[in-house]
Amino acid sequence: MADVRDPATGPPRAVLRDGPTPKHAQLREILRDLARSELLPGSPVPSERDLAARYGVSRLTVREAVGQLVAEGLLVRVRGKGTFTTRPRVESQLHLASFTEDMRRRGMRPETVLLEAAATIPPPGTAEALGLAPGRAAHWLYRLRKADGAPMAVERGWYHADVLPGLLDHDLTDSLYSLLAREYDVHLERGTQTVLAEGADAETARLLGVRPGSPVLVFRRVSTARGTPVEDMTSWYRGDLYQVTMQLDRNPEPAGHRPGGPDTGGNR
C-alpha cells in the first residue's frame, strides 16, 4: 500500500493494491490503525459508502473488513447510528459494591435513568427469594445505568417492601446502596449470584444501544442484610464494555465453609 493525497480532504490516504493480500484484509489493517491511533474511544468511523468511495472498493469489501474488526471487539455497530470504536471494557471483581461509587473510582461519570418504579406483586420465584407470602407486594425498580454517557447496564430488580418502607418516595437515580444505608440503616452484606451470557432482547438492546441478539452478561443476585433477603436483582451488561475477573483456587473450601461469605458482582 502507498500513501497519496486525497484532494477532497487533504490528508494522505492509503491506496489498496492488487496482489496476494486481499483488499478487505488491507482495508481491515488501515481501519485497525485508525481506530487505535487516531480515533478516541466511542468515535464514529466513516460509513460503508464513504469508505468504499475513498478506497475504490465495493461496499461488500468494506463490510467484510469492518465485520472482522467488529468480531475482534475493536469496532461496534450500533443499529440506526453507524459503526464506532469501542470503549475500554470496565473490569469488575466480584463483590458487593455500588455501581455509582465504582464508576467514580475509575474516573468515570455515572448516570442512572429511572425507567419505572412501582409497588406490585412479584413473580413467585422472587417472592420465594425475598421470603414474601404469596400476594404480598414488593418494590419494583427498572433502571438504565450509564458510564461517561455510554449505556452500560439495564437493571430490573425487586426490593423487600417491609424492610424498606417508602423506598419509592426517594431519589432512585443515585447509589441505591448508599440510600439504603443512609435512610434505613440497611447494609447489604452477603449475596448469591448467578452469571450467564445471552443475546439481548429487543427492549434491552434498544436501551443499551446494540443490536438485538448482541451478547450481554446477565447477573441475577439475591442479597441479604442481617440475614434477611432484601434485594432480588437481575442486570444485563453490554458484553463489549464489561468484563468480570474472578480469583480461582485449585482446592476450594468444603461446601458450607465460607468464612467471608460469597462474593457478588456489585452494580447498585
UniProtKB/TrEMBL annotation:
The UniProt record lists the keyword Transcription regulation: yes
Signal peptide: none
Residue numbers spanned by region Disordered: 1-23, 249-268
Secreted keyword on record: no
CDD domains (alphabetical): WHTH_GntR
Gly residues bias (residue ranges): 258-268
Source domain of life: Bacteria
Keywords attached to this entry: DNA-binding, Transcription, Transcription regulation
Name of this protein: GntR family transcriptional regulator
